[in-house]
């Protein structure tokens, strides 16, 4: 039975991490033929995040003393993962862990090395149909939708592949491929570094619609406008990184 390692980088998430772990452990992935391990990487939190995680005996906890960004937690989680696949899970409740089921089913259907991206854009279109801003969540600004669209267009220009939601916090990767990458970034841009390396390595990317309930900065949202420009530069940087340096 294949195993999926669910990696959760967390920074000051005491308000959400307990409920999130409860939700994850309730999802019956065994019914579709998967085992799981859950790994939380505490990225230097100074609240009760680690204390709450320790209450869950099934969860492996690792701690980074100094916070360098989400990507740093992802990198540690990748090194510690023992599953056949790695699923990156944001540490808040913006995403619904029940969407693991269709995403993992897509993994089982793949005939070649494949990554599965959970697309919020496709999820919105599936529920609400197309509009003037297709896939825009009602609680997100037009500026956010435009930024996401520009990143998709930029990925198409650089790599020849259209990805509707490059910023999604739900991605599943083959572990052996991810562990072979020498991931260099440490922030939110790690997602884009990995995407670039997957495409250039010939790994297929399939998008599956997922649900999304965005939170505000006041509720703990950490990504900022500046991360959009970092993402653009990250795609450009790794488009022209020699394959031998992956």
Q: Please, how many helices?
A: 9
**Strand neighbour order, sheet with most strands:** 3-2-1-4-6-5-7
Q: Output the structural class.
A: alpha/beta
Q: Proportion of β residues?
A: 15-25%
Summarize this structure as a short list of keywords or feature phrases:
globular, seven-stranded mixed beta sheet, alpha/beta, 39% helix, 246 residues
Q: In words, what does this structure look like?
A:
Helix 6 packs parallel to helix 9. The chain has 246 residues and is α/β, with parallel strands linked by helices. The radius of gyration is 17 Å and the shape is globular. It has a 7-stranded mixed β-sheet with strand order 3-2-1-4-6-5-7, with helices on both faces. The protein has 9 helices and 7 strands. The longest helix is centred in the middle third of the chain and has 18 residues. Strand 2, helix 2 and strand 3 form a beta-alpha-beta unit. The mean pLDDT is 93. The chain is 39% helix and 17% strand.
Helix/strand layout:
Elements: E1 3-10, H1 17-26, E2 35-43, H2 49-53, E3 59-64, H3 70-80, E4 85-88, H4 100-109, E5 114-119, H5 120-128, H6 142-159, E6 171-174, H7 175-180, H8 190-200, E7 204-209, H9 225-239
Parallel strand pairs: 1-2, 1-4, 2-3, 5-7
Antiparallel strand pairs: 4-6, 5-6
